[in-house]
Amino acid sequence: MMTCEEVRLSLGAYTLGALDAEEAQEVEIHLASCEGCTDELMELEGLPVFLSKVSEKDVELVASPPREVLDRLLNDRVKRHRRGRLLLVAAASVAALAVGGTVLTTLQDRTQPTSAAPAAQDAPASAVRPSEGELAAKESEPQDSAARPDRSRAAEKDEPNATMASPSASPLPSVSAELKMGEPGRAFTGESKDVKATVTVSPGMPLQVQLEGVPPGTECRLVVVSKAGAKEVSAPWTVRAASYEAGAEVFKVQSRTPQESIRSFEVRDADGGLLVRITAK
Amino acid sequence: MSPAGTADEELVRTLFDEHAGPLYGYVLRLTGDPGRAEDIVQETLLRAWRHPEAISGRPIRAWLFTVARNLVVDQHRARKARPQEAGDEALAVIPADDELEKAVESWAVAEALAALRPEHREVLLEVYYRGRSVKEASATLGIPAGTVKSRTYYALRALRLALEERGLAP
Ligand SMILES: [Zn+2]
Question: Which domains, ranges and CATH numbers included, belong to chain B?
Answer without folding.
Answer: 3-81 (1.10.1740.10), 93-165 (1.10.10.10)
